[in-house]
Amino acid sequence: MHNQDQALIFESSTPGRIGYSLPEMDVPELDLSSLLPEGYLRSEEPELPEVSELDIMRHYTALSRRNHGVDSGFYPLGSCTMKYNPKINENVARFNGFAHVHPLQDESSVQGALELLYDLQQHLIEITGMDEVTLQPAAGAHGEWTGLMMIRAYHEANGDLKRTKVIVPDSAHGTNPASATVAGLETITVKSNEFGLVDLDDLKRVVGEDTAALMLTNPNTLGLFEENIVEMAEIVHAAGGKLYYDGANLNAVLSKARPGDMGFDVVHLNLHKTFTGPHGGGGPGSGPVGVKADLIPYLPKPVITKRGEEFVFDYDRPQSIGRVKPYYGNFGINVRAYTYIRSMGPDGLKAVTEYAVLNANYMMRRLAEYYDLPFDKHCKHEFVLSGRRQKKLGVRTLDIAKRLLDFGYHPPTIYFPLNVEECIMIEPTETESKETLDSFIDIMIQIAKEAEENPEIVQEAPHTTVVGRMDEATAARKPILKYQKA
Amino acid sequence: MKHRYLPMTEEDKKAMLETIGVNSVDQLFSDIPEKVRFKGEYNIKAAKSETTLMKELFQMASRNADLKTNASFLGAGVYDHYMPVIVDHVISRSEFYTAYTPYQPEISQGELQAIFEFQTMICELTGMDVANSSMYDGGTALAEAAMLSAGHTKRKKIIVSGAVHPESREVLKTYAKGQYLEVIEVPVNDGITDTQALKGLANEEIAAVIVQYPNFFGRIEPLKELEEIVHANKSLFVVSSNPLSLGVLTPPGKFGADIVIGDAQPFGIPTAFGGPHCGYFAVTTKLMRKVPGRLVGQTTDDQGRRGFVLTLQAREQHIRRDKATSNICSNQALNALAASVAMTALGKKGVREMAAANLQKAHYAKTVFKEAGFQVVYEGHSFNEFVLKLNKPVKEINQALLQKGIIGGYDLGRDYPELANHMLVAVTEQRTKEEIDTLVKEVGDLHA
Question: Is the ipTM of this complex over 0.90?
Answer without folding.
Answer: yes
